[in-house]
């Protein structure tokens, strides 16, 4: 199968919203009047972001999910995406699985594939997403103000727990590993929550490299500091009942490492004025996405951690950095 047959079979579908999709030199998007285009790219590299033998269906899901997560973080509605694909060889079973996972998530979000590039080489996937947001309403990293509440959606740390198990650093019972692995391989982009937080959140970003490291970007962009209750964040690990059981035997530091600096969570971290607590609760309910208030924005720069008793927790939970 050649390049063009491959594109036609696995990556071409009629477009509905875009003015022009796959097949010409450019795709054409027609943003509605009064809207800004939100654009973001994320690349996944074999051996770096995923294991060579990962289920291709899950990989198709994840490649798009991590991009949709960026749109969610900006409060943008997904419109379209492009896929740049480098493949070592044409394996139809792999392509069928990959495209199935990708299309399922694309359809769930009404996001269309409008173009891309296909070449031979080491397995590498780069998606660029396009979304729309009413002019001036995008959720940015720079809007946090002293006194704002800090929230995180969903759960934290399970993807890291699965990674530690897959790397052979820890052992998890089959059922616990399966649940954690689902979070690692099939993250849920929080698009409905991002949309519901427009006009409510003062700042937002998605948690991809670990909560503390990512939160630090909001704090820097906003010129503020924060205090975070680690008792609350430790409770956000979904397999927490196991990790704190006698059988689990994970110490507090390991749970903190997973939840505060785990990476691959794809949850939203956001701030909102404390006067908007009811609006945050309404956004959470409307989007059917749990959110937890985990701390407060402070005027004084720096990120402080406290435990359940309000005692300081030493901050040494490094987040993921590709070059360190
Ligand atoms: P060009 O040489 O003009 O860049 P290509 O021959 O690379 O065009 O691609 C032909 C068409 O197929 C283009 O419309 C391009 O956007 C689309 N395309 C290529 N690879 C992919 C892919 N992996 N997924 C979706 N569309 C693709
Ligand atoms: Mg090309």
Q: Which kinds of small molecule does this entry bind, naming each only once?
A: adenosine-5'-diphosphate, magnesium ion
What characterizes the major β-sheet?
7 strands, mixed
Oligomer: single chain
Number of DSSP helices? 11
The CATH class of the largest domain is: Alpha Beta
N to C succession of SSEs? HEHEHEEEHHHEHEHHHEHEEE
CATH architectural type of the largest domain:
Alpha-Beta Complex
CATH superfamily of the largest domain: PurM-like C-terminal domain
Q: What structural category arises from helix and sheet content?
A: alpha+beta
Shape assignment: globular
Percentage beta strand: 15-25%
The number of E-state strands comes to 11
Can you tell me the residue ranges where pLDDT is under 50 for at least 5 consecutive residues? Answer: none
The CA-CA distance between the termini, in Å, is 40 Å
Query: Which fold name fills CATH's third level, the topology of the largest domain?
Result: Phosphoribosyl-aminoimidazole Synthetase, Chain A, domain 2
Strand order of the largest sheet: 6-8-5-9-7-10-11
Q: How many domain units?
A: 2
State Rg.
20 Å
Mean pLDDT over the residues: 94
């Amino acid at each position: 199968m050649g390049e063009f047959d491959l594109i036609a079979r696995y990556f071409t579908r009629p477009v509905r919203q875009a003015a022009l999709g796959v097949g010409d030199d450019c795709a054409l998007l027609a943003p509605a009047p009064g809207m800004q285009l939100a654009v973001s790219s994320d690349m996944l590299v074999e051996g770096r972001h995923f294991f060579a033998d990962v289920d291709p269906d899950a990989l198709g899901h994840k490649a798009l999910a991590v991009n949709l997560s960026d749109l969610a973080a900006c409060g943008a509605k997904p419109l379209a995406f492009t896929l740049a694909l480098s493949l070592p060889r044409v394996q139809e079973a792999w392509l069928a699985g990959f495209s199935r996972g990708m299309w399922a998530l694309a359809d769930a979000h009404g996001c269309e594939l409008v173009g891309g590039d296909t070449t031979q080489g080491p397995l590498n996937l780069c998606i660029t997403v396009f979304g729309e947001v009413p002019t001036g309403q995008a959720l940015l990293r720079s809007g946090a103000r002293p006194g704002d509440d800090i929230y995180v959606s969903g759960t934290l740390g399970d993807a890291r727990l699965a990674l530690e198990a897959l790397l052979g650093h820890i052992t998890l019972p089959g059922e616990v590993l399966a649940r954690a692995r689902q979070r690692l391989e099939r993250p849920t982009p929080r698009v409905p929550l991002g949309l519901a937080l427009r006009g409510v959140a003062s700042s937002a970003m998605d948690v991809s490299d670990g909560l503390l490291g990512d939160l630090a970007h909001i704090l820097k962009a906003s010129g503020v500091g924060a205090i975070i209750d680690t008792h609350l964040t430790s409770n956000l690990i979904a397999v927490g009942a196991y990790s704190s059981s006698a059988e689990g035997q994970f110490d507090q530091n390991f749970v903190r490492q997973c939840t505060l600096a785990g990476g691959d969570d794809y949850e939203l971290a956001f701030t909102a004025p404390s006067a908007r607590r009811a609006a945050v609760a309404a956004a959470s309910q409307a989007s059917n996405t749990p959110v937890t208030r985990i701390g407060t924005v402070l005027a004084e720069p720096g990120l402080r951690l406290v435990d359940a008793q309000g005692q300081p927790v030493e901050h040494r939970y490094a987040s993921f950095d590709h070059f360190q």
